[in-house]
Design a protein that fits this description.
Helix content is about 55%, strand content about 0%. α6 packs antiparallel against α7.
């Protein structure tokens, strides 16, 4: 799911519509004001401002900051989105496992240097 977010290919209404996989309303399911895109949800959706502040420390996030956000923060943001979150708990657990694996690989590598 993190890769999907970073590449803009997450299962959000705007992207699914563009791919021909969704023929409904593209309006954001959270704020109901703008087209639902990864950038909108993570960076500027008014309905998610408090969540962004709690996780990223700012109610608005710049697009360039998405690629430098930690995997943990992105996972938290995805998991704790209000109703209709765009990732399942399985996706988030998988992301946490990947992050944990990377940390352990780095630790093992340092021990062998």
């Amino acid at each position: 799911m993190v890769v999907a977010i970073l590449t803009g290919h997450a299962p959000v209404r705007g992207h699914l519509y563009a791919m021909g996989l969704f023929d409904g309303d593209q309006t954001c399911r959270f704020c109901r004001k703008e087209t639902e895109t990864v950038q909108h949800i993570i960076c500027c959706c008014q309905a998610l401002a408090r969540q962004r502040y709690n996780i990223f420390g700012n109610p608005l996030v710049e697009t360039k900051d998405i690629s430098t956000a930690s995997v943990r923060d992105l996972c938290l943001f995805i998991l704790f989105s209000p109703e209709g979150r765009f990732a399942s708990k399985h996706d988030v657990l998988e992301m946490e496992l990947v992050q944990w694996s990377k940390i352990n690989i780095i630790s093992v590598s340092k021990n062998f240097l």
